[in-house]
Amino acid sequence: MNLMENILIALRSLRGNLVRAFLTLMMIAFGIMALVGILTAIDQVIYSLNDNFASLGANTFSIRPAGRGVRGEGEKQADMISYNQAMQFKSNFNDKAATSVYLGCGGSKVIRYKEEKTDPTFSIAGIDENYLLNRGIDVSAGRAFSLKEVSSGDNIAVVGNDIVKELFGGQNEEALGKQVIVDNRRYFIVGVVESRGKSNGSSEDKSVFIPIYTAKRFYGSPRMNYRVEVAVRSQEEMEGTIAAATGAFRPIRGLKAAQKNDFEIRKSDGLVQIIKENTVSLRGGAVAIGLMTLLGAAIGLMNIMLVSVTERTREIGVRKALGAKNKNILLQFLTEAIVMCQIGGLVGIFMALLVGLLIAHFAGGSFVMPWAWIGLAIMISLITGLLAGIIPARKAARMDPIESLRYE
C-alpha cells in the first residue's frame, strides 16, 4: 500500500470511532493550543509593548557631553553642547530622523496666575517643535509650538496638567490664552499636555515648556548644556541612526579623525531591551509548558492506539493472511497516529490563532501571524504522532497471523 492508501484507511478508522477519535484529537489540539497560544500571546504582548513604548519615546537616543559626573584622574571634562552646535546638528540631521533640542532651566519654580500660585515644585524647560512628539507627549488642549514660534523666541508656554489643576481648577480650556508668571516673566499658555504621571523621577505634569530660543535668552549661559534627542521609527533603525548621528556630530564638535568622541549617546530603550532579553526565558517556559501538555496528550494517544490494536487483532490477522507484510501493518498504524496528530494540530493551531487575536484585541495592538510557531506546531504534531504511534504499530506488526485470526 502506498502513503495515500494508508491515509485513507486512517481516515476511515477515525470515522468508525468518532467519539474516541474526537477526544483524542482534542487532547492533541489542546496541547498544540497551549504551546502555540502561549508563544503567540507572548509575541502579541511584546509587539503591543513595543508600540506603546515607541509612543512614550522609547525609540529615542540623546547626545550629551562625555565624562560628565564620572572622570578619571587627569581626564579632561568635555565641553557642554552649545545652542549653536545643537541647532546646527538639528538642521543637518532632521531630514534623516526627527531631531529635537532641550534645555533644562531649573526646578523648584513657583507658577503664578493673578493672586493664585503653586507650591515651589515645578520646573521650566526650553524645547523645540519636535520635542513633545519625540517624547510621545500628547497635547490635550490647545497646541504645541510652531517652528516660527521656536525660532522667534515668543513668550508662550505649554504647561503640565498639575499646573492647570492648581491654578485653573483642572479646566484645560480655561487655561488657554491666560498669562502665567515664572521667574517674574509672563508667558501666554497656548497648550496643555496630557497627564502622564511621574517617570524616572520627573514629571511633565509639573513642567512649563517654553520655546528653546526663549529659554536661551532668559536662562542660557556657557555652563548650560543643550540636550539633543533623535527619534527613530523602530528599534531596528536605532543602531544605524546612532552611527549616522555620531558621524554627523563629530565635525560640529570640531573633532579630528584621530580624536575620540567628546560626547556620548544614551539610548532611551531600557525597558524594551529588558523585554527582549526576557523574551528568551519567557518563550522557553512557554515551550516547556506546551511540551508537558503534549507529553500527556501523546501518552493518552499511545494508550488509545494500543486499545485500537487490540480491538483490531482479527483485522490484522486477515491482512497478514492476504499477504500484508509486517512493514505494511507498521506503516498503517503509524500513519493513523500521525494523521490523528496532524488533524489535532491543525485544530490546535486554529484555536491558538483565536487566542492571539483576542490578546491583540485586548492589548490594543495589531495581530501578527505567527508563521514560525505554526511551523513549529506542525513539526511537533508529526513528532508526537511518531512517538505515540511507534509502540502500538510495532505491536501490531509483530502479531502472529494465526493467533490473530483465532482472536475473539
How is this structure best described in words?
There is one protein chain. 56% of the residues lie in helices and 15% in strands. By secondary structure, the chain is α+β, with helices and mostly antiparallel strands. The strands form two sheets. Strands 1, 2, 3, 4, 5, 6, 7, 8, 9, 12, 13 and 14 form a twelve-stranded mixed β-sheet that branches. β3 and β4 (116-117) form a beta hairpin. α2 (18-55) packs antiparallel against α13 (371-397). The two termini are 27 Å apart.
Beta-strand residue fraction: 15-25%
- Supply the helix-strand structural class: alpha+beta
Which consecutive residue ranges, at least 5 long each, have pLDDT under 50?
A: 70-74
Strand segment tally:
14
- Percent helix: 55-70%
Radius of gyration: 34 Å
Ends: how far apart?
27 Å
Give the overall shape: elongated
Helices and strands, in N-to-C order?
Answer: HHEHEEEEHEHEHHEEEEEHEHEHHHHH
**Main beta-sheet strand count, sense and barrel state:** 12 strands, mixed
Structure summarized in a few sentences:
By secondary structure, the protein is an alpha+beta fold.
Task: Give the SSE map.
Elements: H1 3-16, H2 18-55, E1 60-65, H3 83-93, E2 98-104, E3 111-113, E4 116-117, E5 123-127, H4 131-134, E6 139-142, H5 147-152, E7 156-159, H6 161-168, H7 172-175, E8 179-182, E9 185-193, E10 198-199, E11 202-203, E12 207-211, H8 212-219, E13 227-231, H9 238-252, E14 263-267, H10 270-311, H11 313-321, H12 326-363, H13 371-397, H14 401-406
Parallel strand pairs: 5-12, 7-9
Antiparallel strand pairs: 1-13, 1-14, 2-5, 2-13, 3-4, 3-8, 6-9, 7-12, 8-9, 10-11
Helix pairs in contact: 1-12, 2-10, 2-12, 2-13, 3-9, 10-13, 12-13
